[in-house]
Design goal:
mainly beta, 1 helix
Length: 258
């Protein structure tokens, strides 16, 4: 299905593709998805790629697909659900998901749920990103995905200016976390990532990507916090494990504390 765009005003909408068909999107002004109501997008294994930069959904956003999916939005974005199916009361897992937000914050609706494979969430200050002279600093756009029910089993990656808060209920693998512009710490104030204790004593955090934050990095896990292929650079690093270890003799935590 090639989505040519629609504007529902405040009415919201449901966009779906039957069976395993994919949804793609036309470029330009005629291809945008605009609504101040809630929007749900649903496909089978074909997934969807809806990255027109003019998309503007200001109501709750729900993404449903067991396939690979990507959505770009402009303005503040409130995530209701990211799971495998809109019609599954058991909340099956979505596939790999990319969410890109231009000039806005990302929040999670109260009682929301994100259950997926890999998850990549980015916020972009487009004025700063397109600037070449006397640019100052990027406007902070936070990412706050703080439902204790979230269950992301793949790699979690975030790029933002501002603050990042993420709660997960399963063992968590961290990929790249930085400002997303030049992969430095500029503008990224803090990153707080928690694996909820309800996940059990074995659920920990593995640092597999480069974490680059101007302020504080806080990692709190029920289980172990381990060093993979990644590293951490920050002004302050706070690591806490409820019932596990932090690093090992053979793989100590790699960090640069400014």
């Amino acid at each position: 299905t090639d989505q040519g765009g629609f504007d529902t005003g405040s009415g919201g909408g449901f966009l779906g593709a039957a069976n395993d068909n994919a949804i793609t999107q036309a470029g330009g002004a005629l291809g945008t998805i605009v609504t101040s109501g809630n929007l749900a997008i649903s496909t089978g294994a074909g997934g969807f790629t809806l990255n027109n930069p003019g998309n503007q959904v200001s109501g709750q956003l729900s993404l449903y697909s067991p396939g690979t999916s990507s959505f770009t939005n402009s303005g503040d974005t409130n995530v209701n659900q990211i799971i495998g199916s809109a019609f599954d009361n058991m909340a099956s897992s979505a596939g790999n998901v990319t969410l890109i937000v231009r000039d806005g914050v990302v929040t999670e609706q109260g009682g929301g749920l994100i259950k997926s494979g890999n998850l990549s969430v980015s916020t972009i200050d487009t004025t700063y990103a397109n600037c070449s002279v006397s640019c100052g600093t990027p406007t902070p756009h936070d990412i706050t995905l703080d439902s204790a029910s979230n269950a992301v089993t793949g790699t979690v990656s975030f790029t933002a200016g501002g603050n990042i808060v993420f709660d997960n209920s399963v063992a968590t693998t961290l990929g790249r976390i930085d400002n997303g512009l030049d992969h430095s710490a500029q503008g990224l104030t803090s990153a707080s990532l928690t694996v909820d204790s309800s996940a059990g004593p074995g659920a920990g955090i593995a640092v597999n990507g480069a974490i680059n934050v101007a302020g504080t990095v806080t990692l709190h896990a029920a289980g172990d916090i381990t060093q993979g292929a990644g590293s951490m650079t920050a002004d302050t690093v706070a690591l806490s494990s409820d019932a596990g270890k932090i690093g090992t003799a053979l793989a100590p935590m790699l960090m640069t504390v400014n």
